[in-house]
Amino acid sequence: MRVFISILVIAIGLGACVPAKKYNDLLAKEKKCSEELKKFKTSSLDNEAKLKTAQTRMNIMEKDISQLKADTSDLGHKYRSLQSKYKQAISMGADFEKKLDEIKDSDAKHLARMRADLEAKIIETQRKEDALMTLEKELKKKQLLLAEREQRVAELEEIIQRQEMAVKALESKIAQALRGFEDKGLKVEERNGKIYVSLEAKLLFASGSTVVEAEGRKAIIELAKAIENENDLEIIVEGHTDTDRLASASHPKNNWELSVLRATSVVSIMTENSSVNPEILSASGRSEFHPVDPSDKAKNRRIEVIIAPRLDALFELISK
After folding, report:
1. What's the CA gap between 191 and 186, in Å, rounded?
2. Tens of pLDDT, residues 72-85
C-alpha cells in the first residue's frame, strides 16, 4: 500500500510538470476527436434516416405492386367479360339481320321496329367496343407501371444483396487475417449489416495507458491491411472503459479522455502502417456507458472497430 501511495505521489508530481504545450496539444486533439465524433454521429443519423426512408419507400412500392396486380387481374376479368359480351352482340346483330331478311316483306311497322332495335343494338355494340378499347389501354398502362415498379424493387433488392454479400466477404477476410488473435481477447462478428471487431484492453493497453502494446499493435496492423483497399466503407474506432474512476492530475484525467485517446491511438497505428484512406476513418470515446457485460469489467475495457458499407448507390436509386 505504501509503495502504491509513493508511486501515486510521483505520478502526480510528474503530471504537474507536463509542459503547457503538450497539455494544449492534448486539449486540441480531444476537441478534434469530439468534432469528428459529432460529425460521424450526424452522418450515422442521416444514413439511418435515409435507410429507413429507403425501406419505407420500398414497402410502399411493394404494396403498390400488390394493388397493381389486383387491378390488373380485375381489369383482365372485365376485359374478358366485355369481349364475351361483344361477341354476343355481334352474334345477335347477325341474327337480327337474318330475321330482317326473313321479314322484309312483312308489315312495314314491324320492319321499322326491327330496324330500330337493330340500330339500338349496333349503338350498344359500339359503346361496348369503345369501353373495351379503353379498358385495354388502361390494362396496358397498368402492366407497364407494374413492370417498372417490379424492376425498381428488383434493383433495390439486388443492391442490398450485393451489400450483404460484400459485408460477409469482408467479415470472412478480416476474421482470416485476425485468426491468430482469437484466443487473446479479439472477436469478429457481423450485426445489422455492419462488422464489429472487438479487441479487449488486455490485448492493447496497460492499465490506464493510451500506448498500444506490441501484441495489440500487430493485431491492429493486420486489421488495417485487411481493409486498406476497401474505400466504400465508413469505419469508426470506439474506445470503451470500465466504471473505475481515474485519479490523475495529468491526461487522461477521466474515462472520457481515456476512451478517446485510446481510440485515436488505434487510428494512428492504422493510418501509419497501411494505406487505409483516412477520410473513411473516425475515432470516438464512449467512456463506461456502453458495457457489453456489466458484471465483467475486463470485457467492458475494449476497443471496437465498426465497419459499415456506404449506401450511396441505394440512396441514389431511391432519389430517382
Report:
1. 16
2. 888 888 888 888 88
87 in a structural domain: yes
Q: Give 289-302 pLDDT, tens digit per residue.
A: 988 888 888 888 88
Q: What's the pTM value of the predicted model, to 2 decimals? A: 0.53
Residue 284 contacts residue 239 (beta carbons within 8 Å) = yes
Q: Look up the CATH number of the domain holding residue 249.
A: 3.30.1330.60
Cα gap 190→235, rounded to integer Å: 14
Same domain, 200 and 313: yes
C-beta contacts of 273-280 below 8 A and 24+ residues apart: 273/220, 273/221, 273/224, 273/225, 274/221, 274/224, 274/225, 274/228, 275/228, 275/229, 276/224, 276/227, 276/228, 276/235, 277/231, 280/231, 280/233, 280/234, 280/235
Nearest to 72 by CA among 149, 142, 133: 142
Q: Are residues 52 and 65 in the same domain?
A: no
Domain end: 164, 189, 205, which one?
Answer: 164
Cβ pair 141, 106 in contact under 8 A = no
* Domain ranges, residue 201: 19-57+170-319
